[in-house]
Design the sequence.
């Protein structure tokens, strides 16, 4: 694969995404929000959530499942709750629409959450968490989509890969942010392994007969993924179903699977985004206090801070651009008539 | 071991704990709160957090580290934040002292958290979560204590076993509650394995030379525990340090280790308890909605709901009492002159 790539600048990636989305039913505002998410994913080396997802976004616009002209509405049903009805659009616009209200609520009440409903999420979660940290807040986010993961002990799909992200601000540095599937592997990673003909580690999933397998296609076609860390990871995955669906009145992964039109794009689902203002309880010099912990981690052989690999990619890609599979660009050319200049 | 046990009723367990705590420096109020926690732990089969911990509580009373006459003070620095200063007492009294305020804050603001500081925590976390669920709320709790776990990739202690608990209410049934160490094993479980001469699974920890071991003593004496689920579990453990220490201005596990007097009882530390009112956003019939998910889980071979084993133990122990190691009872006799009638 590596040989057959084309290097695009971040501006080219954004333009490719924008052009493709607008040519397929997104208005400017919705296209810009999604293109920004795709571009920052590529910038940070999250290729499984970058341009790779664009055909899925397009499929959901074409099928009419997602609303490319969505107008999110933001309300405040309780002082510490921000409800964003995303009007069946893609998540990025709704997240941006409710962000200032969430930040305001967290600062005034001490803690607040955003319930994002009637939305189609197809990206990583650090996009949500990082801007909250940049506002000086501690943040957590989780979302559910379609069923692909068996609960610990089981062999049938019930949970989605149910990602969780958490972030903590740092002084004069990008925040510490982790963002991970509660499945042993993100589905995007398994899809990339299948595309590139690689095995996946044992524990990633079971085949259609319920047996452990390292073949990504056997997991994707009739098999199931498994949670990370056995029953403990499965418990976290259950928590995500309850926060991102039950708590906010949205669909569980199994409900989204039943309702989805299988167009290859993101199913309708919810997202839970939490923001906490440390200045209420953390005490004077709290940013320095947490640096003490981070310093201990960084001083230990073999340990790194979550997010650091992404920030390393970010520093490089701003200047060097990103190598994108040529095949992916051709696919977009067909969708949008965009050509790399 | 099994042969050398004495069966005590729950009332006897409570009396044993009460008598021992009061004979060693706890006033009635503090002793009652801790005895209740110990009794409900034994009731639910959490023997590693029951009477097994009583000598540690006593040690911290005797050394003067913990305040047996603590008077927790509850304040509300922001509408959705309940701050409980526990006056250096054991956690159970402070948790009870702030609970109604937390429930009120969650209901009126939609979400709220309790910051418990200047406190000594030595129990399981489902004690905190379950009463919040009984009040119709979704709940999460986490705490840190002393360093025993290496971050993923490392070989030195930095995190504690950093337990997390989460609960969701059910209609006319006890809530779904999970409560687990973010270490591969709870330290209490490793201590019980050491006491009883059992191996622990590979992955539980490293010996003093940084090599994997199944010998619980090698982990406890100079070795380190490991997080569950590799770097993902390690990320959750880091989140716990940030919520239960950085966010609320309390000690990180490594700071608690440095400050602790090593009397064998619980170090000073913080706890983060979150409560969310689903009725704000979950919609009509939300308890029925989540039953749909639980029903899917229960219908799957090999899958059970978190908490069910505890509730099974609870149903039995109410009538049959609990088999307690005779050696443990003798230890308490020496501490309190309590004798089993």
Sequence:
């Amino acid at each position: 694969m590596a040989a057959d790539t084309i290097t695009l600048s971040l501006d080219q990636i954004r333009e490719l995404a924008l052009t493709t989305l607008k040519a397929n039913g997104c208005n400017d505002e919705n296209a810009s929000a999604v293109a920004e998410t795709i571009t920052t994913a590529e910038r940070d080396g999250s290729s499984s959530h970058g341009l790779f997802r664009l055909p899925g976004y397009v499929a959901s616009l074409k099928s009419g499942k997602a609303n490319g002209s969505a107008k999110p509405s933001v309300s405040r049903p309780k002082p510490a709750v921000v409800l964003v009805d995303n009007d069946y659009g893609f998540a990025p616009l709704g997240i941006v629409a409710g962000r200032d209200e969430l930040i305001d609520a967290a600062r005034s009440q001490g803690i607040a959450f955003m319930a994002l409903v009637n939305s189609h999420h197809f990206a990583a979660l650090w996009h949500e968490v990082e801007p909250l940290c940049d506002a000086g807040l501690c943040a957590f986010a989780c979302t559910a989509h379609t069923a692909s993961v068996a609960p610990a002990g089981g062999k049938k799909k019930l949970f989605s890969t149910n990602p969780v992200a958490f972030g903590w601000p740092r002084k004069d540095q990008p925040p510490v942010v982790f963002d991970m599937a509660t499945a042993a592997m993100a589905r995007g990673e398994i899809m990339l392994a299948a595309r590139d003909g690689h095995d996946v580690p044992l524990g990633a999933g079971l085949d259609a007969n319920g047996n452990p397998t390292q073949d990504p296609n056997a997991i994707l076609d009739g098999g199931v993924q498994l949670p990370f860390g056995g029953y403990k990871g499965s418990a976290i995955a259950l928590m995500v179903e309850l926060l991102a669906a039950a708590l906010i009145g949205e669909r569980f992964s199994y409900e989204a699977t039943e309702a989805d039109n299988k167009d290859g794009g993101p199913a309708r689902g919810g997202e839970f985004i939490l923001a906490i203002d440390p200045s209420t309880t953390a005490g004077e010099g709290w940013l320095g206090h947490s640096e003490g912990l981070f310093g201990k981690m960084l001083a230990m052989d073999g340990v790194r801070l979550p997010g650091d690999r992404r920030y390393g990619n970010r520093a490089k890609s701003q200047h060097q651009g990103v190598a994108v599979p040529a095949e992916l660009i051709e696919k977009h050319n067909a969708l949008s008539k965009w050509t790399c200049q």
